[in-house]
Amino acid sequence: MVTKNIVVLTGDGIGPEVCRQAVRVLEAVAERCGHNFRFTAHPMGACAIETTGNPLPESTLAACRAADAVLLGAIGDPKYDNDPTAPVRPEQGLLRLRQELGLFANIRPVVAYPSLLKHSPLRAERIEGTDLLIFRELTGGIYFGAKGRDEHGGAYDHCVYSRAEIERVAHLAFAAAGTRRNQLTLIDKANVLETSRLWREVVRELAPAYPAVAVDYLFVDNAAMQIIMNPRQFDVILTENMFGDIISDEASVIAGSLGLLPSASLGAGVCLFEPVHGSYPQATGLGIANPLATILSAAMLLEHLGLVEEAALVREGVEEALTNNILTPELNPKAPYTTEQVGSYVAFWVRDSGEQQWSASNAAIGASTII
Ligand code: IPM
Ligand code: MN
Hints:
By secondary structure, the protein is an alpha/beta fold. The protein has helices at about 15-35, 45-50, 60-65, 80, 90-100, 125, 165-180, 195-205, 220-230, 240-255, 290-305, 310-325, 340-350; strands at about 5-10, 35-40, 70-75, 105-110, 130-135, 145-150, 155, 185-190, 215-220, 235-240, 260-265, 270-275. A ten-stranded mixed β-sheet has the order 2-1-3-12-11-4-5-10-8-9, with helices on both faces. The chain has a two-stranded antiparallel sheet with strand order 6-7. The model has no long low-confidence stretch (mean pLDDT about 95). The structure holds 3-isopropylmalic acid and manganese (II) ion.
């Protein structure tokens, strides 16, 4: 029995809906395994700007620092997307949080689930068997370099990387490859960018420390093509911040839905777990958002806290939902289930491991009252 304090940043758009389901699943884990998970919700993103003027209020940051782990829904609002002159933006909250918590490695697994092969716009035979892990550097590069306007009316974003920034995330990626299929692919643009040449240099220097791991190098334009032409060739992908952002959305097509991709952001201290998708404002409150990416992010959270069997239980529950077609409309357009029903199904399964029959009518049992 363990006690864990989990801060939940529900965020904007569909963030609160998908977080609610992930919390229900975590509550089911706690009940099943006799753990004590304490959840506290805090504002970040557009909702925090509305109430405090600050996308990452100090109280939210302090709560995150004091937590055992942070679960995040999604942030962002079209109101800011369509206003390039907005002085504060929801994304600044997330970027600052990543920086303040030192979350330098973002891990995004991409798996082609057998039952979903038919949903991918890519041909099943191309994507079948895909199981790759993207290590995206998260606190450096063009995202965090100097940016601004110059005296001629132009604009700039500097891309800067230190050796240390590359080394620490590369070590994690090498180590992960060592526990999988021993293959690491660095994605860069070393034919053009000096920062990419430094990435290659550093990765080449580290390689001898991981003799079992084979390293290869791909330019990002070629990688963008390879990842959908032949995704099975990849095991662990390592890349810088911006390329990782783009490549991981592209790779989500393999899974059949962006609503299935979880992520973990790791650093030296408290870690953060969030779905790869955004706040999907058009879907807010409609009950059509897929909660599985957030539920799978909660599984990564459990694993990170050392609760490995509990994480496996959640993943089994998700796989049950996938095989039994208990899915939101983007994956099950003919007989869709709601966000809440998908969450109930997984929570129910986690609590009882399929011993009892789940039905849409008992889906409300165990509905979370916390957030
Ligand atoms: C992501 C998002 C963020 C990013 C945005 C919201 C700042 O797209 O986590 O992938 O670009 O990193
Ligand atoms: Mn992104």
